[in-house]
Each structure stands twice: as C-alpha cells, then as structure tokens.
Amino acid sequence: MSGAASPVLVATGLLREARILARPGVQVVAGGGDSARLQAELHRKAVGVAGILSIGIAGALAPGLRPGDWVVDGEPAWAARLEAALPGARRGGIVGQDRMAADSAEKAALHWATGALAVDMESHVAARVAGRYGLPFAAARVISDGADQSLPPAARVGMRPDGGMDLPAVLLSLVRNPLQLPALIRTGWEAERAFRALLRGHDRLGPGLAGPG
User: What are the DSSP E strand ranges found in the chain?
Assistant: First the structure.
C-alpha cells in the first residue's frame, strides 16, 4: 500500500498569506520580513518534503505588470505547471532581497540590474534552502504594487516580525504624516486585489500546488 505524498514546503511573508495557503499536504512558513528566521524555519521543515514553493504577494519590477498579475519562476517543469494553472501568468525572474523594495526608483534599478519581473522578501531564502537539500524550487508571485508605484511610509512599517499587521506602527506613521493617507488607501485596495488573486490562484493550483508528487 502506498503512503501519502510528501508535502510541499511553502515560504511566504504574511500571516494572511499563510492562512490562504494552508491546506492538507502543505507546510507553510510566514517569514514576516525576517530572512534569518525564515531560513531557520525552512531548514527545520525541509527534510522529507517534495519541494519548496515561494508564493504570495510581490512588487512589480517590469513595467506593465499590475496588481493581480502572476509571475512564475524556478525549476522548469514546476514553473510550467504553475504557468498553465494561473491565468495570464508570465514566466520570468523573481528576485528576493532582505528588505522591502518600496520605492519606484529602486524597483527600476533592480529591473535594470537583474532583468527580473518581480521582487519579494522570501524567494531568495527559499531557493537557497532548496539548493541546500537538493529539492525542486519554484516561485509564484502575485503583484501587489506596480513598478511605477512607491509605497507610502505607513505601508513600509505595517508588517510585524511574525507576519502579522503592525496596526500601531501604521497609525503612528499616519499621525506623523497625514498627507500619505490617499496613497495608503490606494495601496490597501491594490493589496486586496492581490490577495483575492492569491486565493483564486491557490484554488486553481490544487492540493499539491502543482508541485512534485
């Protein structure tokens, strides 16, 4: 009698993303912007998994990508399955870094330097751990903010180290600079569009997230 399929290990940023992505056969780690903690947790859970998938929201680097659009990257066969399952997904590089790319000028510089389509704070860590254990790696990221958009200060301080929302920090930032409120509202609406796309994409990918069996 065959046993259950090995789970897929998922790296994401926010607790809200983790709640969307949680399902049987998937182990989810929310990094909360702390790359060292994310790496340690992925190392702890990597033994016995089928592969590592970095999935969640991201910032666009390439012009033309808008909130709700998908970008996929990684091991060719897995990336091809992700691309086929996610409507309109673009195949291309996803660059990860330890801090948020919140400024349009920084995004433009990253795009010029790397050719990547999107940026997040988890994919580089997940890829490194997958390489350490010889595991397949892929990334599927849904755009939350366009390449031409700079995030307001309140959005840059809104994530706690556990991946939850730091509402006091957001409110304090608004008190210090109330003029950022329209930009923060826009950012919130675009993030909601991305989260809805993540939920739909998660459902389309199915139990194994289109990964190795």
Answer: 8-12, 26-30, 51-60, 70-74, 90-91, 94-96, 118-120, 137-145
Judged by phi (left if over 0) then psi (alpha if -120 to 50, else beta), residue 104 lies in: alpha
Q: Around 176, how many Cα atoms within 13 Å sit in the side-chain half-sphere?
A: 10
The per-residue pLDDT for 1 is 35
- Nearest partner of 209 among 120, 94, 122, 81, judged by Cα: 81
Cα 163 from Cα 151, distance rounded (Å): 18
pLDDT of residue 2: 43
Report the C-alpha gap between 24 and 106 in whole angstroms.
38
CA 32 to chain centre: 11
The structure tokens listed for 49 are 């998994």
What the block records as the tokens of 75 is: 């091991």
Verdict on whether the full-model pTM lies above 0.70: yes
Structure token digits, residue 138: 């892929």
Q: pLDDT, tens digit, for every residue of 36-81?
A: 999 999 999 999 999 999 999 999 999 999 999 999 999 999 999 9
> Tokens in use for 72?
């996929």
pLDDT at 182 > cutoff 70: yes
